[in-house]
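Hi R.,

Here's the input for the 6-O-phosphono-beta-D-glucopyranose complex you asked about:
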Amino acid sequence: MQRNPVAKLLLFGATGDLARRMLLPSLFGLHADGLLPEGLAIIGSARTDHDDAKFRDFAKQALDEFLSDDRKDESAIATFLDRLQYQAADLSDGKSFPALAKKVGDVAGGLAIYLSTAPSLFEAAITGLESVGLAGDTVRIGLEKPLGYDLASSREINDAVAVAFPEDRTYRIDHYLGKETVQNILALRFGNSFFEPVWNARGIDNVQITIAETVGLEERAGYYEGAGALRDMVQNHILQLLALVAMEPPARFDGTAIRDEKAKLFRSLRLMTPEEVPHCTVTGQYEEGASGGKIVGSYTGELGKPSATETFVAIKAHVDNWRWQGVPFYLRTGKRMAKRRSEIAIQFKPVPHSMFSGRGGLLQPNTLVIRLQPEEYVQLLVMAKEPGLDRDGVRLREVPLNLSLDAEFAGSRRRIAYERLLLDLIEGDQTLFVRRDEVEAQWAFVDAIREGWTANGTKPKGYASGSWGPSAAIALTERGGVTWQDD
Ligand code: BG6
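And here is the predicted structure with 6-O-phosphono-beta-D-glucopyranose in place:
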């Protein structure tokens, strides 16, 4: 991979929550490890009326709050703050851009822009940047979600961006792709020979992908109420995980080969008809309950008004191609669930014939569990014989073959997903960014579900905070003879 680092980084949304929690600590992490290009200037921008000094204070506070103690190296923090500059700008106001261009200065050495803003501002932002020469050949742009709220609005945004930034200079962010464990799915599937022969409808019975969170609405009512779980988590993160699990083997580890395979997979997702949607999806909204040892309120209580927004969704999806014909992909995500957990469970087919049944031995089909967070491990659940003389029959038990990534790689620091993505943006590697054709196929799948909900007047079912969602989500899998992999 040829690196093509830029000399400047322009960060829109620089005083927002994402910047405080993730972007500034990530940039610092890269700086402290000597990974940022020598002399890279970081220019923050937002509506807040800061100057360079105030922005540095803001960044210092963010690092104090969000860096772990072992990363707080005062001299590295000081040299990091020296890189920071600030220019206030209102993206909806064309008059903001000349001052911005002046602050950024010459972009011949390359500029990476990171745009984290409401979708309604994209068009104005791109027009403004172009009008002051901040969109030329040496400039690339990173786009943070939400990139629209349906296929039509996502196309509009993509069209607006494409006017100034061709696809090879556009970096759409899905922070799940920056996670080490998510990239590990590729290593597991394509770095080992023994999975591939069974990685298809002959070997696999069903696939389950869960992203469960214990947090509720947090401070994001304005965004979340208009989004809901389907747009917030399924359209992007869950479908990206599905693609990595289900795509055909790419020929090379590069942006074109991997994204070609993911796009093909997204286009193979079966689009649900309005009649199918009630049988293949379940929506829920959290009510009062106990989460993380605390009594917590309902979604509508936190919101302060009635709402039909789903905070939980479960889906039975299908991939219509040769490899996956007939294999259900069960997807679910929710807020205020029983545990924080992101996990992929692959359930294999049972053995064709059990020689143990005559001797009382019961078999369970094998399961491969890829736990992405909070722990990082891969477990293969296999059958083993319990020790004993078998005089009362053979006793078999499911036991885990355990690969703990936490333990195996204990010596290496786990980076924040944004460290990887910001570095790739700065250096010009698109492999872990989402291409336009992927995003649009993802939206097509999600839109078909939403249309079904509208046509059927679907309202989310209540579920107690701290549970695994509405009971209908259990029925969704049980109807196919499958149980969610919960422990
Ligand atoms: C974001 C969603 O994209 O991902 C949030 O907008 C969600 O609602 C978050 O909480 C989850 O990310 P992670 O990395 O904590 O699993």
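One thing worth noting: The pocket of 6-O-phosphono-beta-D-glucopyranose is lined by residues 213, 232, 342 (CB under 6 Å).

Cheers,
M.
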